[in-house]
């Protein structure tokens, strides 16, 4: 099993940027497709972005397309989420997740391991 630890969250003004990181340990990280999800207070967890095992394919939620970029560095066992043009509605706890398939998937129930989350707050 892989263990995941997110970092990089914080408070930012609308229009600003943040980069989240998710460090993996345990089972070989490059065997997993990776995803980012988020959950705002009182709302369901939602898919944000995902990346294939070797980074060849990425998928984004419509709400973040063009503003967020997911990437990975398999040599560092880390996946990133670069967030730009942040909006107050992006405020949530952000989670990274690992799925032991090659291609990225949208459904959270398909993921095998989750991090503890990192808070992102965007002020207006």
Can I get a quick summary?
Helices cover 0% and strands 51% of the residues. The protein is mostly beta strands and 124 residues long.
Could you list some keywords that capture this structure?
seven-stranded mixed beta sheet; four-stranded antiparallel beta sheet; 11 strands; 124 residues; mainly beta
Main sheet? 7 strands, mixed
Oligomeric status: single chain
**Gap between N and C termini:** 40 Å
SSE sequence, one letter per element: EEEEEEEEEEE
Low-confidence stretches: none
Q: How many DSSP-defined strands?
A: 11
| Shape estimate | globular
- Beta-strand percentage? over 45%
Radius of gyration: 13 Å
What would the average pLDDT be, to the nearest integer? 95
User: Helical element count?
Assistant: 0
The share of residues in helices is under 10%
- Estimated structural class: mainly beta
What this model shows, in words?
With 124 residues, this protein is mostly beta strands. It is built from no helices and eleven strands. The chain has strands spanning 2-7, 10-13, 18-26, 33-39, 46-51, 58-60, 68-73, 78-83, 92-99, 113-114, 118-123. Strands 2, 4, 5, 6, 9, 10 and 11 form a seven-stranded mixed beta sheet that branches.
């Amino acid at each position: 099993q892989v263990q995941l630890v997110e970092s990089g969250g914080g408070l930012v003004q609308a229009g600003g940027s943040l980069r989240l990181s998710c460090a993996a340990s345990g089972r070989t990280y490059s065997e997993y497709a990776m995803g980012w999800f988020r959950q705002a207070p009182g709302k369901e967890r939602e898919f944000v972005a995902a990346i294939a095992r070797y980074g060849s394919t990425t998928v984004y939620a419509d709400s973040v397309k063009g503003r967020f970029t997911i990437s990975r560095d398999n040599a560092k066992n880390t996946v990133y989420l670069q967030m730009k043009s942040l909006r107050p509605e992006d405020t949530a706890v952000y989670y990274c997740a690992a799925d032991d398939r090659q291609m990225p998937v949208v459904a959270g129930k398909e993921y095998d391991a989750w991090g503890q989350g990192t808070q992102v707050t965007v002020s207006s």
